[in-house]
Amino acid sequence: MFTTTPIEFQTVDQTTLRGQLRLPAGDGPHPGIVMSHGFAAVIGQYLPRFADAFAGAGFAVLLYDHRNFGASDGTPRQDIDPFQQVEDTLDAVTALRSQPTVDPDRIGLWGTSYSGGHAMVVGARDPRVACVVAQVPTISGEIALSRRIPPVATRQTLKGIYADREAIVAGKEPATRPLVDDGSDVPPVFAGPTAAEFMNRPGSQPEGFVNAVTVQSLGRSRTYNPGEHAHRISPRPLKFIVADHDPVAMTDLQLELYERLPQPKSLTLIRGEHWAPYDEEAAQSIDAAIEFFTEHLIGTPASTSEATAVVAPS
Minimal CB count within 10 Å: which of 14, 132, 140, 196? Predict the structure, then answer.
């Protein structure tokens, strides 16, 4: 029903980003979806299942690694600049629009976790984007980190960030921290036991994944608040897929923002923590996104819910 081929494309600063392009059979023009992963992840972590389902439903799909991660170019490795990743997503939209069998006027964004935040920012900025799906999206890095890290630990973290910055200026390599416990004395970014259990699953450790992120990435994340942009997506449709016990992106932050946003919008609430949409509840997450993209990029009315329906756990 579709073909999958490697793809690479250039950003405006001539960095090469790489990923996969899925194209449905036929000459098109096909509606398209740009996909990227979350914080310090690579596309092999569960997302091919999503991309296959989207392509099987008739969408051209561009799935790529962020710069400094996986197959994409960029240094320092394992370094996250969310503001740069937003700029790169704009260039991914350009890359998908340039495909000869893709309809450039029917492009949707799908982002998860950190890139769920990016999808909202890009959707707010880029009129070429027709609709947005944000799965367990980052709403406020500032608030989320203040809840996860006690004030005393925050001060120590900030001291470490700026000591590392001075060391980089002096010519040293950027310091890193593990995402989840790696057996060292360095505290991980995600300290909870469910995060470690999830990240230690075989599906969470594909080729190219590294259990590390630069210390400077943590400093930038404190000032990244993508939820502030989401209201500007309207009048284009926005969908939230929210886990009902999310300790990472914070369920209450997502739902509070959703309630404030203008129409058109829709919400699917799934069971579990932040990681549930990738594995245990992936089928529900995928179905909700396909229904939304089908309605807003193909034009077929949603068959199982209204545009603003909530699918809640029983």
Answer: 14
- Residue 148's pLDDT is 80
C-alpha–C-alpha distance, residues 87 and 71, integer Å = 18
Chain segment 211-231, per-residue pLDDT in tens: 999 999 999 999 999 999 999
Rg (CA), the chain: 19
Q: Which residue has the tokens 């990472």?
A: 248
Q: Is the pLDDT of residue 305 over 80?
A: no
Q: DSSP secondary structure string, 30-53?
A: EEEEEEE--TT--TTTTHHHHHHH
Contact 285, 277 (CB under 8 A): yes
Q: Answer yes or no: are the C-beta atoms of 91 and 10 closer than 8 Å.
A: yes
Chain segment 120-157, per-residue pLDDT in tens: 999 999 999 999 999 999 999 999 888 887 777 788 88
Nearest to 18 by CA among 85, 89, 70: 70
Which regions of the chain does DSSP assign to beta strands (E)?
Answer: 2-10, 16-24, 30-36, 60-64, 102-112, 129-135, 176-177, 213-214, 238-243, 265-270, 310-311
Distance in Å from the first CA to the final CA of the chain? 35
Least confident of 79-83, 107-111, 121-125, 221-225: 221-225
Q: Is the Cβ–Cβ distance between 92 and 9 less than 8 Å?
A: yes
**Percent helix, percent strand, percent coil in the chain, to nearest 5:** 40, 20, 40
